[in-house]
Amino acid sequence: MKTLIIYGSVFGNTAQAANFLADTLGPETLIKPLAETVAADISAAERVIVATPTHAGRASQPWQNFLKFLPGDIWQGKRVAVFSTGLPVQGQNFFLKILLKVLGYAATPTLALLLKKGALMAGEPLDLMVATKQGPLLPGELERLSVWALKLK
User: Fold this and answer.
1) Per-residue pLDDT tens digits for 129-141
2) Distance between CA 85 and CA 10 in Å, rounded?
3) Tens-digit pLDDT profile for residues 24-41
4) Looking at the DSSP assignment, which residues form a beta bridge with residue 19?
5) Long-range CB contacts (< 8 A, 24+ apart) of 27-32?
6) Which residues of the chain have pLDDT under 50?
7) Is 87 within 8 Å of 119 (Cβ atoms)?
């Protein structure tokens, strides 16, 4: 297995994007839900792509717990990339706009955490936008994901 995509999804948006990405990357890609992923899966992969919904500017709580309890050296030298899903700033009420601008999205802080743990960046963090909390992904987001996939190392 060359690439492992691990996804957590609440409303199906992140799962949809992760499955699309797996199809885009091809047959040497394994995709697993977060709940079914174990440390050995990460160890066996050359590259790991983390896919998480954004909750209060960070990865979802299941993701945070998963990352916290993995062996400390599992990310050492592992190529990683992260994408997240979340609401766009445009079209939100004043309070939510401020909150989104201040807290941001999960991909950047999640990637930063993995780099601190010794991972190597395989691609810039990507934030995909959804129409509402329940979805769907906004038009054009899967195309953005496809372009991002081509740039991964």
Assistant:
1) 999 989 999 999 9
2) 11
3) 999 999 999 999 999 999
4) none
5) 28/1, 28/2, 28/3, 29/1, 29/2, 29/3, 29/4, 29/5, 30/1, 30/3, 30/4, 30/5, 31/4, 31/5, 31/7, 32/4, 32/5, 32/6, 32/7
6) none
7) no
